[in-house]
Structure formats: structure tokens, C-alpha cells
Amino acid sequence: MATALQSGVFPAVSHAVNAASTVSDDGMQKILLGVSGGIAAYKTPELVRRLVERGACVQVVMTAAAAAFVTPLSLQSVSGRPVRTALLAPEAEAGMDHIALARWADQVVLAPATAHLIARLAHGLADDLLTTLVLATSAPVTIAPAMNQQMWQHPATMANIAMLTERGCRLLGPASGEQACGEQGPGRMLEPAAIAAALLAPPPAAAGALAGVPVLLTAGPTREAIDAVRYVGNRSSGKMGYALAAALAGAGARVTLVSGPAQLPCPTGVQRVVVESAAEMHDAVMARVADCALFIAAAAVADYRPAQSLPGKLKKHADTLTIQLVRNPDILAEVAARPDKPFTVGFAAETEGLEAAARDKLGRKGLDMIAANEVGAAAGGFEADDNALLVLWPGGRRTLPMMPKPALATALTQLIAERYAASASG
Ligand code: C5P
User: Fold this and answer.
1) Are residues 119 and 149 in the same domain?
2) Cβ(23)–Cβ(81) below 8 Å
3) What is the mean pLDDT of the chain?
4) Both 152 and 232 in a single domain?
5) Cβ distance 354 to 391 under 8 Å?
6) 81-112 tens-digit pLDDT
7) Domain range holding 139?
8) What is the pLDDT of residue 358?
9) Options 57, 169, 181, 292, the catalytic residue
10) What sections of 253-400 are H helices per DSSP?
11) Do residues 299 and 218 touch, judged by C-beta distance below 8 A?
12) 416: enclosing H helix or E strand
């Protein structure tokens, strides 16, 4: 293996592949995939396949350590291009030298990116082909880290990541969960499908279907006042709803976002109405629902509110305190029950029995579509940057795999546009 790596191009097939069977990259998205030496490297052949499936042309560059986890031949077979490993390889430099390779790429993705690779990139080292390429390219660089959770959370790694993201590198993951070393925590590489989807997010092609469509969308948590300073709330960050508002606007929709208190900027082209409680959200929606063709309820609306909210601050006298809660109106169900109901999409966050619970909610609330996600699992859900959805409609279902929320919002928008068009034509 040492000689194979020193030669820089996987040797058995280098010339043959260079000359004859290298995949043509005419008009394709050109992705330079840098693979470093972590256990997650075994997933890279699948990543290459996912990228190729989506129409990309992939050139793999490996570090020396990566070849201990996955063979260059495997990656060459799936990418259809000779894998590059060494900086100064005579036969490769005669053809596509490292500068030409850096210029060739439309995107550079480092997956898995080990702690060591991240450190080398942060400090601008150029001691092998991969790090040299990253310095030499002007293409956007995406990093998909993979490492032990302790290594990920180490201040040195955090500082290196902060440095790289400040310089404009995009971070994908890592996800949390069980690790190859047996530990639990953040550090798992995102699944290949999610990385491929994030790199090659479908263009806002739903534009045709949603151009000019008035959409009313709820997002974020609600706060139910107990007294002047305290409230009952929930963990919703609003990230999914805001990403959806941005994707819908990108697809040409005229979006009004009724948002609970979320620490997020209003997406470009979106009209935002800020509310605090479920009752305020209810009133804001009901005042506008007659003017929308599509209603999407992405908010985590509190099901209950304190029966009384005190105007001042509640004093602590007794050892225990009982607060009586009363039901809030179900905004989504009320919209779906209107005689002039818009195309109505709900969300369902469940901890178990996801599909059965979501299917039941779809029927019970009279929805056209429901997007369900598992909360309380190791990855995804509230506050997280990534999520996965199971989308159901009467007679159909689609799974959208774990990916960053903006990519997921684009995929969901596409699906909503398809179902909305089908309902309008049927
Ligand atoms: O019944 P459940 O709360 O699980 O339903 C979730 C869906 O209903 C979400 O789309 C949420 O935005 C919406 N909802 C609502 N008003 C409520 C409670 C939930 O619009 N009071």
C-alpha cells in the first residue's frame, strides 16, 4: 500500500483510467471529495454513489491515513476517476496537477474530516495533497467532521472549527449518537444521503408551482404567561419553520410568517408578524387565513395556558404551588375545519410510534399533509441544526433523510408544491 500511496494515483489502473474511462465532467457539478483517516471513511463509497446519483462528477483525494480505512480502488470504482493521494506524483502532475485540480472543483467537501485534518486546515498547513488543494482552491469548502465526542468537544477542536467557519467554511454536522468507540455524543459523520442532499440541494425548482401563491405559516414556540415575568414555554427554536419560510419564498410564494418568540432574523422576502402566546397566534392566523391558499403550521403551540395570568410578580410564600392550566385552541384543526379551508399542512413531533400517530393526526385534524419527526432521539428535533421527516398525505408517504434544516426545508417545499399542484388540478 505504501508504494501505491507514494505514486499518488492508485497504480494498477492509473493510466488506463486517465486515458479512457474517466467520467466526463461536461456541464456537471464538480465535487472534490477529500477523505481523511477516520472510521467513517468506510461510508465514503456510498457518499460518492449518492453524489453521482444526483448528477455530480466526483474526484476523490485521500490522505495517507484514509487508505487504512477504505481502499482507493473502491473509491475509484464508484467515482470512475483515479483517486489522488500524493502531492508530487509524476504521472498525475503531468496531467491534472494539484493547482489544476483545485481550480477544477466547483465545491470541495471534506468527509470525514478528522480532528487532525481540521487542525491542519485551521492552521493553513500544506503538507499533503489534500491540505494543499484546500489552500489553492477558491471553491466553497464544506467540512463534515467525524471523531470521538471528547475530541470534538475539546477546546482546541472547537477553536479550529470556529476559525474555519469564520473564514467561510461550511459545517455539516456532526450528528450525535452512538460512536464506533462505544461512547455516546456528538461526533458522528452525517449520513451520506444527508451530505449529498446538502451539497446538491435541489434548486428552488418549485418556483413554477408556488409562484405568487399566498402562504400563511406559523413557526417557533409560544409563551403562556404565569405572571409578569414567568411563562410556560417549550424547546422549539423556530429553525425549521424559518428555514421553511425562506424555502417557500425562494420558490416564489408570498409568505406571511406568524412567529412566536424565536431568536432568528426574518428571512428575505417574508412578511413577519411576531406574537407571544397561543391566543395571540390564533388571532393573528384567523385574521389572515381567508387570504391564503396554503396554510402550514410549523409552530410548537402550547397545548395549555395558565388559567390566570397575574399582572405582577408571583410571590413565593408556600412550599408548593399549583398552577391550573386550561386548553388552548388548536389553530391547525380550526383552519382545517373551515368551509373555505386552504391546503393545510401540519407537523407532528412524536417520541414513539411516529407513523401511526402522524397518520392518525392527519385524519383526525382533516389535513392535506403532515410532516412528522421523532423528538427525543439522539439526533434531530427541537433546537438541532439537522432533522429528518416522514411526510404523509392521504394515500401517500415520503421519507426525507437526516440533513441540515435548510436543505430539508427545500425538499419539503418541493413536496408541498407537488401535492398542492395535485390538489388544485384534482
Ligand atoms: O396535536 P399536536 O399538537 O401534536 O399537533 C401538532 C400540529 O398542530 C402542529 O402543526 C402545530 O403547529 C399545530 N397546533 C396548532 N395549535 C395548537 C396545537 C398544535 O396549530 N394549539
Assistant:
1) yes
2) yes
3) 87
4) no
5) no
6) 999 988 766 665 555 678 888 999 999 999 99
7) 2-199
8) 96
9) 181
10) 278-288, 331-336, 354-364
11) yes
12) helix 405-425
Please indicate, yes or no, whether residues 289 and 377 belong to a single structural domain of this protein.
Answer: yes
Dist CA 193 CA 230 (whole Å): 42
Is-catalytic flag, 57?
no
Total residues belonging to the chain: 426
H or E stretch covering 102: helix 98-104
Tell me the best of 330, 367, 369, 389 to mutate to test the pocket of ligand 1, counting ligand atoms within 8 Å of each CB and taking the most. Answer: 330
Would residue 232 count as lying in a domain? yes
CATH number at residue 143: 3.40.50.1950
Strand partners, 113: 145
Contact partners, residue 219, CB within 8 Å, separation at least 6: 238, 240, 241, 242, 244, 245, 257, 258, 259, 260, 262, 298, 299
Cα–Cα distance, 142 to 148 (Å, whole number): 20
- Are 43 and 69 in contact by the 8 Å Cβ rule? The answer is no
Among 301, 345, 389, residue to substitute to test ligand 1 (most atoms within 8 Å of Cβ): 301
pLDDT at 407: 80
Comparing CA positions, the residue from 109, 173, 158 lying closest to residue 380 is: 173
Are residues 52 and 75 located together in one domain of the fold?
A: yes
pLDDT of res. 426: 66
Helices and strands in the chain, H and E counts = 17, 19
Residue 33 lies inside a defined structural domain of this protein: yes
| DSSP-assigned beta bridge partners for residue 35 | 62
Cβ–Cβ < 8 Å for 386, 354? no
Residues 57-83 pLDDT 10s: 999 999 999 999 999 999 999 999 999
> What's the pTM?
0.61
φ/ψ of 259, rounded to 5, equals: -115, 135
